[in-house]
Amino acid sequence: MSAVVTEHDDHHDHGPEKGLLRWVFTTNHKDIGTLYLVFALAMFFVGGTMALIIRSELFQPGMQFVEPQFFNSMTTMHALVMVFGAVMPAFVGLANWMIPMMIGAPDMALPRMNNMSFWVLVAGVLLLASTLFMEGGAPASGWTLYPPLVLQTGNALPFAIFSVHLLGISSIMGAINIIATIFNMRAPGMTLMKMPLFVWTWLITAFLLIAVMPVFAGGVTMLLTDKFFDTSFFDAAGGGDPVLYQHIFWFFGHPEVYIMILPTFGVASTIIPVFARKPLFGYSSMVIATIGIAFLSFIVWSHHMFTVGMPMAGELYFMYATMMIAIPTGVKIFNWTATMWKGSMTFETPMLFSIAFVVLFTLGGFTGLMMALAPLDFQYHDTYFIVAHFHYTLVPASIFILQAAAYYWLPKWTGHMYNEKLAQLHFWLSAISVNILFFPQHFLGLAGMPRRIPDYAVQFADWNMISSIGAFIYGFSQLIFLYIVIQTIRQGTGEKVTDEVWEDAKKHGLEWHLPSPPPYHTFTTPPKVIPTEHI
Amino acid sequence: MKITKQLFAGIALMAFSLGTAYADYTLNLMKGVTEQSNEIYDLHMLILWICVFIGIAVFGTMFYSIYHHRKSKGHEAAQFHESTKVEIIWTIIPTVILISMAIPATKTLLTLDDVENSEMTIKVTGWQWKWQYEYLDEEPSFFSTLDAASNEARQVGSGIDPTTVPNYLLDVDKPLVVPIKTKIRFLFTAGDVLHSWWVPDLGWKKDTIPGFFTEAWTYIDKPGVYRGQCAELCGKDHGFMPIVVVALEKDEYDEWLDNYPDNGAASYPDGTWAAQAACAGSECTKDELMQIGETVYTNNCASCHMPGGEGIAGTFPAISGSPIVTGDIAGQIGLMLKGKGMMPAFEQSISDLEFAAVVTYTRNALGNNVGDLVQPAEIAAMKSK
Predict the structure, then answer these.
(1) Same-domain check for residues B88 and B202
(2) B126 and B258 in one domain?
């Protein structure tokens, strides 16, 4: 791959507006990306604090700190804040920053809507957070908001539901923007099958979002009318069915968890080849596998409901369909392994987090396969086994990869190098403590500890204590991350980074052809050469 | 090489000693006491070992690569990046493995579903936060709630060390008593919100859904006490509605059945069973109502309204000095029958006597002193309205 002439457009570059209002009215994809990422990081700490309240109460048997009702609010709000406030916005932030730079576009297709989708998100999350201070407390029925329990929520119920509406509107606007950008604004020569996998996975994720967010909005609206307008969608006394809600919720909920993992796959597929100094193995099979996983996500939802008493045909169908997810997911893991195979690897922090992701996500995949088998799920369901499972697929997967992405692109965004030593300390503390935190939860679940309980029988005491210790180490280790990010934004190590930052990164993506940091407006004229090393 | 050998020997030794030293320490799924639970256990172990095997292969390859194919060792990157043959192979192999898992799983699932030819049926109703057991075709019908010792210890800041409470959070006032070597069918439903009935030793859990019936069956092999918990979030005291199944030899079970309800009385706390028996069917004295009412309050009300009736500001209203409790008695009874918001309806989940007792108790204790009382018959009359 030859060196490429980069389009600098400093001579007519309009810089950002001065002052704070820049951030309120900005339509610049880089600014909005930054807003999303900063907001997500803040919510990561808010949700994390809630997790630490949960783990403090569970440190020992007996009720020490909080009332059971508040405990339930914490498990509910922790999930909602992490899913809708931290992980999803963080990936939208990455998409905003990176998609235009990766496909050679000057900005997102719909910049004003881009600004609106961010501020609607903030409004939605604040509305949700405000329920903590309402009479009756925040929602305490789990993030799944199952009726009839959720209908017992106090004043918070309509606010939580409107907040879900706002979050849905924000996500749908973000998704439309991403699809419009990818379909209309690719540089000449950037064919679909030359796009970086991060762009591909986000394209598919955006379609998932548009397909399922309205379903969730519909479901919670039915809760609203059941509560306030005497409908009986979910009330058997009026001819409804509480299980109907579960079908609606999981028709949204299963694709939703893939919305959080597909962009994760995309970032991992972007980082691993760069540090293995090899092209990604099986680019087209990665694209096909992603589409396959996305498709399967729509037809497996009832595996969350194996114990509701479905007919045998339903149990069997959902069991077989769910097991099939292992095939495309396996292909991805094998491809990442093959990408590393016979490479020339170095282990900077982004690569460390990516490798940890592949290993630990695979563990989460194994437990997922175990739970796919309906008769086994009769034991595992609603225990700490599943808590361990989905945290393995979210924390050392989505969160690790988000942090890998931050380390990978921060030098590009800021023009400063982060402190590699501190970052590696952050990695090792996180990677070890996350296992101390979640691995024992497998044992707890198998031994019979249900999830969402504020107190437990004494035979569960030891592993709970170990898990809580892991939680505190993991939680406080993230302050190192916060410090590194702030330090890098300010001046980093002082070392001036090159355009490509990482050795031969130019071969892997257009963003590395831009200066570090990139000017406020980039690719106002399209790039001339499309890197193809990743294919 | 020597170090590697030592390391492996060390790990092997460690694994061995762990296996013996913690023989009774649960890390794995329990085998349980039914054929179903044994089948599930075997399936679990099969899948676990398959996963371990795949894990060793994948992680082994990955770590070999990480160790050898690194730049610091001067390894030059190969440039291969595609192989349709390999992709097809690693699509087909997992597919074959999955099919080999699906066959035994389907078999187990079919046996679990077969409720035919059951010899007895027990209806289980989930309530916030207790279980109701009704032996269809037999006399016993009762509620089963968290035992008093656990209930006292589990209050926030109780100061009681849970390790001193026998079977902390896993004991009830009245257990479900069943015979062994009998095919028992369970019918599940719920009175208020979703619950899930789970005894790990039996091998499964089943959701209880208000307005619907779900079913499952068991055939217990050996006598014993098997404990479980509610597995579906059902509100504030979700963690405090355990399940205890006492499985007896058939003749012992028949004896228990013959002596019911007297054998229920023995496990009922503080002799209130006797007080209940004394005034059942007739007028109760205020003392009798107050005595029963205190137990009913502790079991049903104290977890939200607090043992002293002070409630939790902003979430659960106080009983002490409450305008409803100190006001018109019919208003209080009406609210308790129908429930409101987070407060469950008690119309069906406690008896008329218990209802009358707890109304009387709340009006004349916990800092209130209204002075009136209500008889069970009056509650029955209000219910029928």
Answers:
(1) no
(2) yes
Range of the domain at B282: 271-383
| Number of other CB atoms surrounding residue B25 within 10 Å | 13
B343 and B358 share one domain? yes
Kindly list the distances between the CA atom of residue A81 and the CA atoms of A167, A212, A254, in Å, as whole numbers in the listed order. 11, 19, 18
CA Rg value for chain A = 23
Query: Class of A10-513 per CATH?
Result: mainly alpha
- Answer yes or no: do B231 and B297 share one domain: no
Q: Which of B 210-239 lie inside 8 A of A, CB atoms?
A: 210-212, 214-215, 228-239
Could you state, in order of their start, the residue ranges of all structural domains in chain A? 10-513
- Say yes or no for a CB contact (<8 Å) between A282 and B87: yes
Residues 38-57 of chain B whose Cβ lies under 8 A from any Cβ of chain A = 39-40, 43-44, 47-48, 51, 54-55
The owner of tokens 């540090």 is A275
Say yes or no: B258 and B328 in one domain. no
Task: Give the distance from residue A133's alpha carbon to the nearest chain B alpha carbon, in angstroms.
Answer: 9
Query: How many angstroms separate the Cα of A461 from the Cα of each of A187, A457, A529, B140, B313?
Result: 58, 7, 60, 36, 31
Residue ending a domain, choose from B267, B288, B323? B267
Last residue within a domain, chosen from B234, B252, B267? B267
Query: What Rg value do the Cα atoms of chain B yield, rounded?
Result: 28
B62 touches chain A (CB under 8 A): yes
Q: In this complex, do A343 and B54 lie within 8 Å of one another by their Cβ atoms?
A: no
Test mutation, A379, A451, A532, chain B, max B CBs within 10 A? A379
| pLDDT tens profile A426-459 | 999 999 999 999 999 999 999 999 999 999 999 9
CA closest to A336 among chain B residues: B62
Q: Complex ipTM above 0.85? A: yes
- Please report whether residue B192 resides in a domain: yes
**Which residue in B109, B160, B342 is closest to A152 by CB distance?**
B342
- Of the candidates B105, B233, B312, the beta carbon closest to that of A67 is on B312
| B229: β partners | B198
Same domain flag for B221 and B299: no
Q: A-contacting residues of B 246-285, CB under 8 Å? A: none
Which amino acid is located at A309 in the chain? G
| B335 found inside a domain | yes
Q: What is the pLDDT of residues A235-275, one digit of tens each?
A: 998 999 999 999 999 999 999 999 999 999 999 999 999 99
CATH of the domain at B322: 1.10.760.10
Q: First and final CA of chain A: distance in angstroms? A: 13
Q: Which DSSP category does B81 fall into?
A: -
Residue B6 lies inside a defined structural domain of this protein:
no
Interface contact B95, partner A, CB < 8 A: yes
How many C-beta atoms lie closer than 10 Å to residue A368's C-beta? 21
All residue ranges of chain B with pLDDT < 70 are: 1-25, 262-282
Residues B212 and B281 in one domain: no
Residues of chain A with confidence (pLDDT) below 50: 1-5, 7-10
- Burial, A411: exposed, middle or buried (Cβ in 10 Å; 0-12, 13-18, 19+)? buried
Q: How many domains does chain B have?
A: 3
Neighbours of B376 (CB within 10 A): 22
Q: Which residues contact A49 (CB under 8 A, 6 or more apart)?
A: none
Beta pairing partners, B176: B245
